[in-house]
Write a structure and sequence with these properties.
seven-stranded mixed β-sheet; Metallo-beta-lactamase, Chain A; binds zinc ion; alpha/beta; six-stranded mixed β-sheet; 397 residues; 2 domains
Length: 397
């Protein structure tokens, strides 16, 4: 029998024992080996998602028999917290996990994605930068943001699935564009909300193990959950001014409003807050606004008013179809262009596309739509540098 030699390209081992292996055959085809390699490829992505959500629903219902109301949040009542649950401002309705479950099981269709998109790892980024802001998209909402002397990462996920389970759930369709071992030291991680594609526990344990100098910032109500998982984090409410932001080595770290929701089971809907993050190197023009996961809303006007126009805006453009179902919680590329203009951002980088198949659009639709908006002359500098490609932005003319 003819044997085919394969070359091991990367191994990422998480603290809970899960292993992500990437291998390349001499022909160049790419496979990801999981603890369940055969089961991994037996389902299409949408089938995987349906199975996961259904399983999650069953687990949540079972959990709900013991914990009927979800975790209790200790926070002052505010315009976005009623003492029990958080909500958007203004209130825009919601799509809870039950709605998502029904849609995933009965209605999801759309353009199928290729099983795998080869994405060679990008060059190892500099350990530190000395000027400007360097942005490296890694995949989905995972972005390395390097200010002079300060490294931050947004919503890191290196796991092969956005799921609580090792063997089922939405699989990634491309590798993270940087290897874990190539990352520079991280001073901070900011997380937008608790959905599985944004708050990935194995990755957090790998990047910020107990005793690590890496600080994790989360929206209000998420630190207690992470503490139960052995992960130390600081949670912040939406900032009402610089005094309600955190400070880290000359960087101001502010949670800012987003139009979204939070849930990891059927019993915890909106028991924790969601947010974007406004990062500003104190005393400089270097600022980065990370929008997180958000629909289009008036919060973009408020963020500009409160913090000023950011030098760089990181804006989501994916997971937007079908529009009637997704518009509350996810912008489409046209809305992201409007948000870019509303913010008055100097530069923009699109995110939240091309990695996990969570909606009905095709894998290339978000960037194609963004390009169409650009050719209509509505975009100044809202460009995708490419997965794994770092781009340095100057914030002073
Ligand atoms: Zn989300």
């Amino acid at each position: 029998m003819k044997r085919v030699r394969v070359e091991l390209r990367a191994v990422s081992r998480f603290a809970d024992g899960r292993v992500l292996r990437s291998v390349v055959s001499p022909g160049g085809d790419k496979r990801v080996c999981s603890p369940f390699p055969h089961r991994l490829r037996r389902f299409r992505a949408d089938e995987q998602l349906r199975v996961t959500v259904a399983a999650l629903g069953v687990l949540a219902v079972l959990a709900g028999a013991c914990v009927p109301t979800g975790p209790v949040v200790h926070a002052p009542v505010s315009d976005h917290f009623d003492g029990a649950r958080f909500h958007n401002v203004p209130e825009v309705g919601s799509r809870g996990l039950g709605d998502v479950l029904a849609w995933q099981l009965f209605a999801k269709s759309g353009v199928p994605w290729p099983d795998w998109i080869s994405t060679p790892p990008g060059e190892k980024p500099p350990v530190r930068v000395t000027e400007g802001v360097r942005i490296t998209p890694i995949g989905h909402a995972t972005i390395l943001v390097q200010f002079a002397g300060i490294n931050v990462m947004t919503d890191p996920i290196w796991s092969e699935r956005a799921s609580p389970f090792a063997g089922v759930g939405p699989p990634r369709h491309r590798d993270p564009a940087l290897r874990l071992e190539d990352l520079p030291p991280l001073d901070a991680i900011v997380i937008s909300h608790n959905h599985y594609d944004h708050m990935d526990l194995p990755t957090l344990r790998a990047l910020a193990p107990p005793g690590s100098p890496t600080k994790i910032f989360v929206p209000l109500g998420n630190a207690a959950f992470l503490a139960e998982q052995g992960i130390e984090a600081t949670d912040l409410d939406w900032a009402t001014g610089p005094e309600s932001c955190a400070s880290l080595g000359g960087l101001s770290v502010c949670a800012v409003p987003a139009q979204h929701h939070a849930t990891r089971s059927l019993t915890d809907e909106n028991r924790s807050l969601w947010s974007g993050w406004y990062l500003q190197r104190v005393g400089s023009a270097e600022s980065v606004y990370f929008a997180g996961d958000t629909g289009f809303g008036p919060h973009f006007y408020g963020i500009r008013e409160q913090f000023g126009s950011p030098c760089v805006a990181l804006l989501p453009i994916g997971a937007y179809l079908p529009r009637p179902f997704m518009r509350i919680h996810h912008m489409d590329p046209k809305e992201a262009v409007v948000a870019f203009d509303v913010l008055g951002a100097k530069h923009g980088v699109p995110m939240h596309f091309g990695t996990f198949d969570l909606s009905d659009e095709g894998v290339d639709d978000p960037t194609r739509e963004l390009e169409a908006s650009r050719t209509k002359g509505r975009v100044r500098d809202f460009l995708f540098p490419g997965f794994g490609h770092g781009r340095t932005f100057r914030c002073v003319d």
